[in-house]
UniProtKB/TrEMBL annotation:
Renumbered residue ranges of the record's region Disordered: 36-65
Top-level taxonomy: Eukaryota, Metazoa, Chordata, Craniata, Vertebrata
Gene behind the chain: NDUFB11
Role summary: Accessory subunit of the mitochondrial membrane respiratory chain NADH dehydrogenase (Complex I), that is believed not to be involved in catalysis. Complex I functions in the transfer of electrons from NADH to the respiratory chain. The immediate electron acceptor for the enzyme is believed to be ubiquinone.
Any single Gene Ontology cellular-component annotation: mitochondrial inner membrane
Ranges of Gly residues composition bias in the record: 37-52
Complex and partners: Complex I is composed of 45 different subunits. Interacts with BCAP31.
Subcellular location: Mitochondrion inner membrane
Transmembrane residue ranges: 80-100
The keyword Glycoprotein appears for this protein: no
Its membrane topology: Single-pass membrane protein
Listed name of the protein: NADH dehydrogenase [ubiquinone] 1 beta subcomplex subunit 11, mitochondrial
Keywords tagged on the record: Electron transport, Membrane, Mitochondrion, Mitochondrion inner membrane, Respiratory chain, Transit peptide, Transmembrane, Transmembrane helix, Transport
Recorded family membership: Belongs to the complex I NDUFB11 subunit family.
C-alpha cells in the first residue's frame, strides 16, 4: 500500500517519544555477580577497591548528569527529576505562601476599621473625630 504523508503528526511525535522513553528505560543487565551499580565491574569505578577509575562515565558520556550510565536513560531521568522537583517547588511554594499568616496584620486592620465604622455610624458619631485624645484629659503647658 501507499505510505500516508502528513496525517496525525502529534500522534506520531507522541508515539516516537514513548518509544524513545521505553528504549531508555529498558533494563540492561550484565552477566556475573560482580557488576557494580553503574554497570561496570566492581573496582573499575571506585566500587570495592581496584585503585584509580579506569573508565569514568564522564569520559564516556560528556553530558553525564549522574542518574544512569546509559546516556538516554540519564537524560530522561534528569528531565523527570528536574520536572518533578520544579513542579513540587512551585506547587508547595505557592501553597506555603498562600497559607502564611496575615503579614503586617493588614487584613486584621481592615476588619477592625470596618467594625469601628459600623459602631460609630450606629451611635450617630462622625467617622473621624478631630480630637484623637480627649482634650479634657490632656495636661497642656501653661500659655506664655
Amino acid at each position: 500500500g501507499k505510505k500516508r504523508r502528513g496525517g496525525n503528526s502529534v500522534g506520531k511525535m507522541a508515539a516516537a517519544a514513548v518509544g524513545r522513553a521505553l528504549r531508555a528505560l529498558r533494563v540492561r543487565t550484565m552477566a556475573g555477580r560482580d557488576a557494580g551499580p553503574l554497570g561496570g565491574k566492581r573496582g573499575s569505578w571506585g566500587w570495592g577497591g581496584g585503585g584509580a577509575p579506569r573508565h569514568p562515565i564522564s569520559r564516556q558520556n560528556p553530558d553525564y548528569h549522574g542518574f544512569s550510565a546509559d546516556p538516554d536513560a540519564d537524560v530522561l531521568n534528569m528531565r523527570a527529576v528536574f520536572f518533578a522537583g520544579v513542579s513540587v517547588a512551585i506547587v508547595l511554594g505557592t501553597v506555603f505562601l498562600h497559607y502564611l499568616p496575615d503579614y503586617g496584620l493588614q487584613q486584621w486592620a481592615r476588619r477592625e476599621a470596618e467594625l469601628r465604622i459600623r459602631e460609630r455610624e450606629s451611635r450617630g458619631l462622625p467617622l473621624l473625630d478631630p480630637n484623637y485624645y480627649d482634650p479634657a484629659r490632656l495636661t497642656l503647658p501653661p500659655p506664655e
